[in-house]
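Supplementary Data S3. Sequence and structure tokens for construct A.
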Amino acid sequence: MKTLKLVLLIFLFPLALLSQECFMVPTETRYWDASKAYNGYTLFGTRGASYLVDMEGHVIHTWPLGTNPRFTEAGTLLDAVGGNPSNQNTWRELDWNGNTVWQYSESRTNYHGHHDFAKIFNPKLGDSTFIYIANKDLTAQQCLDAGCSPSNNYTGAQMDAIVEVDRLGNVIWEWCFFDHVVQDIDPSKPTYGVVANTPGRIDLNIRGNPVKSDWMHCNSLDYNQELDLIVINSVHGEFYVIDHGNTFIANNPVSSIALAAGTAGDFKYRFGDPAKYDKGDPPSVLDNWEKATSGHKQLGGSHDIQWIKPGLPGAGNFLVFCNAQNLFELTPQSYIIQINPYLNSAGVNTGNFVNPPDAGYTIVNSPDANLMKEKKNVSKQVVWTFSSKNNTSFFSTIGSSAQRLPNGNTLVCSMNDGHFFEVASADASIVWEYINPMTRDGVKKIKVDNYPTYNGVFRAYRYTADHPALTGHDLTPGSTMTGSTPNYYKPVDLTANSNEGNLQQVTDKLDQNRPNPFSYSTTIDFEITETKTVNMEIFDFSGKFVKTLVDGRYLQGKYSVTWDGTNESGMQVVAGIYFYVLRADNRQVSKKMIYVK
């Protein structure tokens, strides 16, 4: 009889990538393929502070702001004050040491800054300026005079504006959605028109969504200096391109604002939901009401619109984080989407903006039946998309960001779980992964099941040492945020093979504690297959560190350790469920135990 030879390929996916399905998730760097990742430093803000960490998670530097930080080409850190992206009326630039070098506050009571901002170079002014999103208050009468349906109440109505100020804080340009509206119910109003023929304006009476407070809820913007255009994104699933250059007159704010309010300020391009201007089908429930379709809607709950910067793969295309709320998919998941706005129906780059409905759609079927998704219309202007194969692995209902990196990879920040990961351009594999350890309850080595944004991060950015904000500064790694030694998977950990019928890879072993439950003390046995550094720690059910039992270099062999139910300070812990975690050379395993009194 022949011996059956088996070759088993085991894929050990980084634990945090399954965070939607797992309850106990180790934080900080979880995986790093140094040969494929874009080596640099990752900047993010959380709980009122900004952190710059290296690929292993060592903290390089911190700043005393942490809302939506980013570095400027002037070598400063720019952020909003207050820690809440949804409500911000003051912005600051800080130097390396945290000193304020510039500050601006919106003092007008009818403007309410929120979500996004940018420091830009205005070529017509020949100087740097600051732009930001603000909700502008409207009276009910203004809404009615513009042609809003009289059947609704418009008390507290607002529409977003983009405001530009100079170094001295003077408003030098402004653009507002309210100046670019259309309606088809009242011919006596100057805004009257055929919505389908007016893609450059927003319909005042979108079905089921009357003008109200924070009506557009715009959450991101970007500036293209070469084209002198601004793009702004609405959470409702559309982004809009605005002409800045042809509506700006240097040293003449009054005329600039008037130009921006006129037809020159109408949208040059819009993408995401053509049904909003009667050029496509809206999402809807199918005849079998247990199923639904997204219609021609491409985006839902989207964030972080941007042009891919010059010199990067895909330069000139749009990149957007599609959270995929409100897309009416039976099983939702988030997507990163790249759009070439110049493509026509033949796939030809025309060099000019093409209205997406004119470019047309491709009907795409779900790649796997287990995703339980209906076929959908995908715009022919979509040239690249990333989503996790397992739709429960990557879904953020709020915030989040994506950044194209010089090597073609894409850095993603998924806000709900404080989850950062880098996607390889060649095969969409994950080449780096990190979980923010800062939670509402302090720094945690393990994140447990909790409500969304428990350790949330609005955005994350990757920079290299030659960026103006980093050159000339000490980039010596400090400790990690948790104080732990970095312990992450590497490519060698993801694949293994076993021959001659041996289906189990030889690895370190952690036994169940005995007795369990226990009252006074319990013994934990573990086995090390080769000499290596070993660490074993106790955590409570919330993920809070309790005590270190083992930390040192161990020879190959079997060992036992005892825990007497005390914490690091020698105090007796409360009765409950605890976890013990064994880490050895980037591998880790954990088990649950019960302490009773």
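Construct B, processed identically:
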Amino acid sequence: MTSIKMALGAGVAASVLAQPLYAAEIEARSRIDAVAVYPDAAIVTRTLDVDLPQGESVLVFRGLPLAIDPASLRVEGRATGGLTLGAVDSRLRPVDPQKVASETEAQLKPLREERERMTATIDALEGRKAMIKRFGQTGPARGDKDGGLEIAQWSAAWDAVGAGFAKVNDELRLARASLVEVDAKIKAIEAADTARRSRTAPEREFTVTLTADAPVKGALTVSYRVGNASWQPAYDARLTMGEAGRATGLTLVRRALVTQRTGEDWTGVTLSLSTVRAARGTQAPEVAPQRVGYLEAVVLGAPPMLADAPAPKTMMRAAEAPATGAAPPDVALKVAATVLETNGYQATFRIPGSLTVPTDGTQKSFIIQTRELQPDIVVKAAPALDPTAYLEASFANDADSPLLGGMVSLIRDGAFIGRGQVAFTPPGEKVALGFGADDRVTVTRVPVRRRETEPGLLGSNKTDTREFRISVKNLHDFPVKAVIVDQMPYSEAANLVVEPLSTNTPPTEKTVKDRRGVMSWIYDLKPKEGRDILLGYRLRWPSDRELTFERMPIPR
């Protein structure tokens, strides 16, 4: 077969169709075959078979989403003979009210017939139930004019009445449930019809012109980018602790939460997930020169100055748009057949099987990866903020793909601990997850001394000395590694001095994660062993100034 291909970009024309279709136009009966979902968009691929006569033909793709980017349209294919791809037009067609009404009536007609049938069935069952009830009320002794049933026959009569009641009640229950279901479908179609009739937005159509040297058959694929579709990561982390406080394993389940409101259902498609943001900018911004000068004072009565030029408008990238809340997962797939494809710039997960994602915003959850890890376990506390010691498991991301930022459900020894957050972690970087409090490691932080001095006759500075004692103790019958994180303030003013005390316990790590003033002490504590940490500092500043302590944002 002959290969045909056409990449369509800025040359795609957009117009509003206000005239009848040309005689040579053929409606393209295509179906969605594959969808590649990005964190902020999706690439939809449609396929169709063509059987074209000699000469020029125009394929019309109707009812496509309005959110399609016309510049992203691509057409490829193969044919049994010479076939040339020509012009491609994007056009908008107003919604035809008569067409909408006929389509709605075609959907409602069989449902209304089914409703009439179910209503008649329920009426018949109600009549049968009333007859059984009247028979039961007459009593066995008054069953007929000859004196009724013999006493030995009473039991059989009661059983027959009871069995009849049970059967007719079951049939009524099923019939009423079916009627409720039919009524719900009718209401849904009528509501959709009302919404569709009230829409003023037209439908989008694409036309593709093809010229055949002779009658040909072939297959075409049409792909386009569409907004209102996304996926976001979610994780399950299951930590199993064995004897002597050692972790026997950490299972990290990686999920993808897919949602879309593109205007067309993805039914029975091949789904893939990419880590690339399709709607992000394509190159770095230009940096303008910056001039510094003196601030000129405004003098009253001076001649008016020229108005400042308007500030440049800024655009919010799609990656900075607010994210919607995630609904609970509702679908899970096996992980074994998931295929991960990576290169230097992106990772793509190909989900096995044929999948369906409706256009109503329903969130679908797919398991894309499961990893068994051997984490490092520590007990960590920041007693200046919270004296609780927390169990923390950390591991290196040794996978070929990055871990995208998302929520993680934390489970320790089969018990749900809570939810946390996984930050964006490229391959080779470390991930730390908290798994709840360890009540058998106690941590306290108490002030030991505070002394303030006023300026003397020969000095003009104030001083403030503060000292704390931090105590940590392991109450387990096995050793643990404890990490205590604390801080002392820092100053960027030349006349405000912060001096650490000579009695301080030297920290294991003087600067934690490049955060100024934040330090940590790391101890391997034996069973029942405790340690004390002394932390203090002296502030010196001019007496005519007042101090303020400002908590700085944590760098991410």
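The radius of gyration is 37 Å. The helical segments are 97-138, 151-198.
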